[in-house]
Amino acid sequence: MCRWLAYSGSPVLLEELLLKPKHSLIDQSLHSTMGAETTNGDGFGIGWYGVGDTPGTFHSIEPAWNERNLRDLAQHVRAEVVFAHIRASSGSPVQQTNCHPFRHGRWLWMHNGLIRDFHEIKRDLVLEVDPSLYPAIEGSTDSEVFFFLALTLGLEDDPPAAVEHAVGLIESIGRRRGVEHPIQMTVATTDGQSVWAFRYSSEGSSRSLFYSTRVDTLRAQHPEVAVLHEVSDESRLVVSEPLGDLAGAWNEVPESSYGVIREGRDELRPFTPRPPG
Amino acid sequence: MCRWLAYSGSPVLLEELLLKPKHSLIDQSLHSTMGAETTNGDGFGIGWYGVGDTPGTFHSIEPAWNERNLRDLAQHVRAEVVFAHIRASSGSPVQQTNCHPFRHGRWLWMHNGLIRDFHEIKRDLVLEVDPSLYPAIEGSTDSEVFFFLALTLGLEDDPPAAVEHAVGLIESIGRRRGVEHPIQMTVATTDGQSVWAFRYSSEGSSRSLFYSTRVDTLRAQHPEVAVLHEVSDESRLVVSEPLGDLAGAWNEVPESSYGVIREGRDELRPFTPRPPG
Amino acid sequence: MCRWLAYSGSPVLLEELLLKPKHSLIDQSLHSTMGAETTNGDGFGIGWYGVGDTPGTFHSIEPAWNERNLRDLAQHVRAEVVFAHIRASSGSPVQQTNCHPFRHGRWLWMHNGLIRDFHEIKRDLVLEVDPSLYPAIEGSTDSEVFFFLALTLGLEDDPPAAVEHAVGLIESIGRRRGVEHPIQMTVATTDGQSVWAFRYSSEGSSRSLFYSTRVDTLRAQHPEVAVLHEVSDESRLVVSEPLGDLAGAWNEVPESSYGVIREGRDELRPFTPRPPG
Amino acid sequence: MCRWLAYSGSPVLLEELLLKPKHSLIDQSLHSTMGAETTNGDGFGIGWYGVGDTPGTFHSIEPAWNERNLRDLAQHVRAEVVFAHIRASSGSPVQQTNCHPFRHGRWLWMHNGLIRDFHEIKRDLVLEVDPSLYPAIEGSTDSEVFFFLALTLGLEDDPPAAVEHAVGLIESIGRRRGVEHPIQMTVATTDGQSVWAFRYSSEGSSRSLFYSTRVDTLRAQHPEVAVLHEVSDESRLVVSEPLGDLAGAWNEVPESSYGVIREGRDELRPFTPRPPG
Q: Complex ipTM, two decimals?
C-alpha cells in the first residue's frame, strides 16, 4: 500500500528523479493525490546499480519527506537503474527489514498493494518458499514473501513466468482459505539490465501504473524542454503516479499486463496468473 | 505547526485520550481535518504527572500513528495531567530534542505555530535567554527558545505575564528585523497542578483551539454516555481540534485569549503581548 | 548473547533496579565484566506489570546507556515485577521486533544465549510452532522462536515442563542437522505472578546466572543498609551478572537447573530437556 | 571522545577503508584498544567527495558495528577523499545533527576530544561565531561550535591559522572561566583537495594520531602485498588508531603539531594556539 518509481536510462543524479520534479515521489510521501493512501510515511527505500557487483540499497524507517540522509544521498549518487519506494504499512511493523526494494543477489523487487488476509495464509505461503531460500527472508511483509515465492518459481530465469506462477499460487492458496480477491499489486523487479513492471489484481481493479513516453517523441513535441536533450532515447520511468506536468509524458499500463524495459526494446504484454498444476 | 492535547482531571489511561476517541490525536497525526497541515508525522511526544517529582516524558522521531512504544505506553500509564503533541516540522530537524512537550523541572510546554523567519532572529532571541538557563536548551526549535524566554521572564511565578512578556519580546525583535507578523501560536504549559492554554498570533488569525464543556453540563445533556459518569466534574481537555462526536462538547478559545484550568476554578481571559519597556 | 535482569517484590521505581546500582544493567550495556560480550549495544527492552491487563513493554534499537526515553521511563514507572534485557545481536537485525522481553498475552520471555546454526534449522523449528500462534511471531530471532515453541508446548500451563520440552525439541532437531551443541541459554519467563529462571546449555557450560539472597537474611547481616528495611522479605532479583557490592547478596544458579520465585515459596530444581517422544 | 579516519588518494571502495582491515574503524566502534573509550557506539558519520559539488555525508545514531545502511553504502561508494567518524558522546544527545563529520559548503570537519566544561562556556563561545554563520549550527556539540569558530576565523582561507586562532580563543575563554585545560583534540578538516590533521591538547597530552607511511616506501619493504601495487604513491591515511598489521606502516603525529596531505606534497608542522590579540 505504497508508491514507487523505477528508472532505466542515461546516468541520472537521484535527486533529479526523487526530489526535483513537481509531484516528486518525496512529495507523494506526504501528499499523494492518487492511490488508496494520501500519506506514505512508514519508511522508504532506494536501490541503484553502480559501483559493486550488487545493487546498493538504502532503507529507513523515517518518512521520506524529512529524511536528511535520503536528501544527501540523492544529491551524491548517480545511476542508470534506480528503484525507489515509499511505504504505507498495511499492518506489519515499520522496520528496515520491511522496507522495499528487497534485494537478492543482483535482483531488486518492490510492490504496491497487498496479499489479503496475509496473517491467515502466511504460513501456507512461506512453506512454498524453497527451503534453501527461506533463511534469507529477513522481514515480515507480504511483499517480501511474494518476492521469495517468485524467486522460488524462477524469477532469475524468466521473470514474467515466475510472477505469473507466484500470483497463481497466492490466489490458489488464498481462495482455498476463503479469500475472495487474494492479491492487489503493482510490482517492479530488475536485474540491473532490464526492468519488469506488473499491474494486476484478483478483482480486476488494480492500483494505478504509468510509463513514460519515449524521449524522442517527447523531444519532438517539446523541443524547448532542455532536459529532454540530455537523456538518451532509451530512458524510461515507470511510476505509481505521474510526475511533473509535461503534456503527453505519461501512459497508463493497462489492467492485467506487464511491461519490459531494456536496451533497444520495450514491450507491453498481457499478464495471466498461472495456478499450480 | 503541529497539533496538541492537554488533559487535567480524574486519573485516565492515556489510550482513552490518545487512541480511542474518534478523530483522536493519533488519527490526526495521519489525517488532520483542521489546521495548516494534514499530516503531523515529524515525531511526537507525551508528558504526564504521576510517579516521581518531575513529569515523565516520552519523545520519538517516528510518526505517532505507527509507533509501537507509544501505543504500549498509552495502554499502561494512567495520569491526572497529560500533555501530548504531534509535530509537523517547519524546518528544524526531526530529532528527539526537537519534540514537544519540553520539560524544565516540574514544567511542561508545547506549542503549535511558529516564530516567523526564526533563522534570521534566532541569535537575537537566544541572547535574551538567562545565561544560567542557556545550557539547558537541548534542541534547535523556535518553540523551545520560546519556552526558555518565558522561563527567563518568570514562567514559574506568573505564567500569563511571562508568556505575554515573551511574546512582546519576540514581536519586538521580529519587527525590528522587518518581520511583519512574528508569531503564530497556541501554547499549553503546566506545573502539574494548573494548565494554562494560550491562543494568539501577531496577525490576529490564530490556529484553532478548543476546550471541553464542564462534565456536569455534558452529563445532564447526555445522561446515557457512560464515561461521563466516571470522570470528575473538574476534568477538562484543551485541544487543537475537537475529538469524538458528542454534541455540545467543545467550545472555541477566542482569538487573543488564554484559559486556566485548575481545581475548583476555570478562567478565560484576554491575552495582550507586553513589549519590553 | 545478552544480559538480563528479572525482579519480583515490593513496588520499586525502575531506576532503582536499572540505573542506580553499581554495575547496573545499564552500565553493563557499555561495560560488562562477565559474559561472552563486553558490550550489549544492539537495542534493549523492559517489561513491567502495573496498569492494564497485560504487561507494559518498551523496546528500543538504540544502546541502553544513552537512551533518553529509557532513563525517563525508569524514573517514572514503578512496578512489582520487572524484566529488563540488553542485547548483543548474534546476527539477526537490530529492530524493535527483535528486542526482548517478548510478550504474549500476560506472559513475558527473555533469553541470553543462542540456538546454534539457527539459520540452518530455523525452518524446521518454525514448522513446530502451532499454526494458530505462527502469525504472532513478529521478529526474526532464535529467542522469539524458542518462546513460541515453549508456548506451543504448554508454557502457560506448566512453564518448566514446556521449556524442557522446547529444549528437547531444539536439541533433537539441531542434532539431526549435525549441530553438536544446539542450545546455550539462560531464560526468564513470567505471568506477572511467578518468575521462572532457567540455566542450561547442551554443552553443560552455561552462561552465568545469579539470584539474590533472601532480604531477611541480608537485613540481619547488614542492618545498616537502609534499603533492606524498605523492601519486603519476598523481594528477589535474578541477574546475568551481580549488581552492587553487598557481600553475600548473590548466589549462582547451578548448571542445568531452574528457579521459581513466587509469593511465599522459592524453589530451585534440576532442569532436564525432554526430547520429543 | 571518539575515533576517526581520513583518507586521501586513489579512488577506493569505502569498505576497503572501513570494514575490511583488521582493527577497522567499524571494529573499533565495538572494541577499541587505544583511546579513552573502548566503545564508540553513540552514532557515526561518513563524508566523501565524488558526484556533486559538495561532499556527500551519511549520519546515523545507531552504532556503526551493526548498521546495515553503512555496510551497504561502504560496498557501493568509491571516492578519493573519505572521512569517517565513530562517536562516544561526552554528554550531548545522540542525534544525527551531533554526528561528525560536520559539513559547511565544500568543507568537512571531525574531532576526537572535547572542550572541557563546555556547558559552562558554550554561550561565550557561540557569541564569537559570526552572526551570519550562527543559523547554520544545527546540533549541540562542542565539536560543531569549534568548527564554526574555525570558519569564523578563516578556515576556508588558511586552515592552520584558523584552527590556531580558534584554539587560542577557546583556551582564552575557558581559562577566564577557570578551566585549567580547556581543550583536548585531534581534528581533521578538508576541502576535498587537501586534508589537514591536528593533534593538540591544553595539557600537552593529546589523544593518539597516526599517519600512514608513503606507499612507495611500503611497497619497497613489502613487495608481496598486492594492494600496495594498486594504490598511488600519494595515497595516505590518518587515523586515531592503526589499522591492519603491516610492519612500518604507521607513524605517530607528534604532540602539538599538524600535517597537510595534498597532491605532490606532505608536510608536518608545529601547532601553536594563537590567543585573541
A: 0.92
